[in-house]
Sequence to fold (567 residues):
Amino acid sequence: MKHIVEEREKNIRRLVMIVDDEPINRSLLGFIVREHYDVITAENGKDAYEMIARNKRNLSLILLDIIMPVMDGYELLSKLHEDPVLKKIPVIVLTSEKSAEVKSLGLGAVDFIPKPYDMPDVILARISRAIELAEDRAVLNAAETDALTGLYIREFFFIHVSRFNVFAPDMLMDAVVVNVNKLHIVNELMGREYGDAVLRAIADKMKEIAEKTEGIACRCDGDTFFLYISHQNAETYSAWFDEITAAANGLTGSARITIRIGVYQNVDGKADAEQAFDRATVACKTLHNKYGAKYAFYDMDMREKEIYDERLLGDMNDALEQGQFKVYYQPKYNISGDRPKLVSAEALVRWIHPELGFVSPASFISLFEKNGLIGKLDRYVWKEAARREREWKEKYGVTVPVSVNVSRMDIYDPDLENTLMGIVKENGLDPHEFYLEITESAYTENSEQIIKKVSGLREKGFVVEMDDFGSGYSSLNMLAALPIDVLKLDMRFIRNICESEKDYRLVKLMIDIANLMSIPTIAEGVETEEQLRLLKEGGCEVVQGYYFSRPLPAAEFEETIKKGFDL
Fold:
């Protein structure tokens, strides 16, 4: 692709915008400029800004009048200057006033063309020089290549992609994302030098592929590469997967490198290149935890999911304000005595959307976590759960502690402790009556910070449950050091304890370890009498699951309280 760009770039017709409210001025300048450039026009700053945003990748220069209706030239210059991409497009101001020249220069203009337009050669020379300087500056500022791999960096890569699309708008291309899975683990196990050698080996293979396909390659960030290449078939991607994997694992060392490839096919020159790579990235991410899968093509199912996810994200704030999120309560029973006894409950959120109906938690919980919205939802649940717990305490004179989820994002909130203390105090509860569930994976992600934060919460009196124990990577040494009060066994272990002796022994071992450390255990996902019997024989103290009850709306759970305490 590079040599195609270099050969054709000399003859490319750059795109120039003329912004002027006077039709005669637009016509006159257009007549002068069109001999050497493609031209688009706008009659005010507002229309111009919208057109500039649409054409930002191809627009080489703006000729801008100052005095215009709706939005004048000064305001447009200011808006362009605030945008990190748009401010790089050079602007030549059309004016005959010296005062306007000074002000425009301060707002980012690069040159001036005086009115009337009676010197075409001078106008064209100023335009040519401004475009040349801007393109040279863009190349210098881009730092062009990644120092480690020699591939283009992201910004320069998209400059080349944009230029290629102008040269060959009808050529069908593929946007390809190649991701090194868990590179940070490789760096930790084998050292940074080994990880860098892996990246260089993959980059060499990227260069080879790019050369074969008249394409261009880029190291997008630490563990991800982009390829923009002529359209290829599935068999080719399968072969490339094997070649790239072999190159990554051809070094001396014991680390096993795995990669993922996502492809958005048949991109034409009129498409938004960055959007194409966003979609290839979506395809790549679908391979997470799909062992044996080599590559994924972006398809309509992914597109529909993207649209669905965007709908959920867009509706989230209204859903909070309108009470569409409902907090359900799943009871927990102590089974250590002769008769199961209600001891607490877990708060679980459900979304009843007015148009979409019931939205599965699997659809929105992880989505909100990825987009930083989970904290808002968690606080809503905390407040609602504490309010209900207070109501039941006042109404029946008994305390049924409710456990609420504390996500990884919540842990990093410096005001978390104050927020939780405020909620329990507002509802007349003691911290030990409000349980906090934190997943095992949160503990292993940044153990020092998590331990410090959770220790502070326990000192305030909160009961901390480690949720989903067994699903992550906790070592026994780490478990001994973690500040926890209760261990919740992941339901995936409970599911097969009746059929699998191995699974039962593993669950029994985890219960024995917890008992040795004087930490009570909770088994979630208990559905059968046989599971209940085995857990009781194994020493588990508390269980929850459909054997006793599904998660219940607040009103139905209130009936469970009355039965559980003979009220």
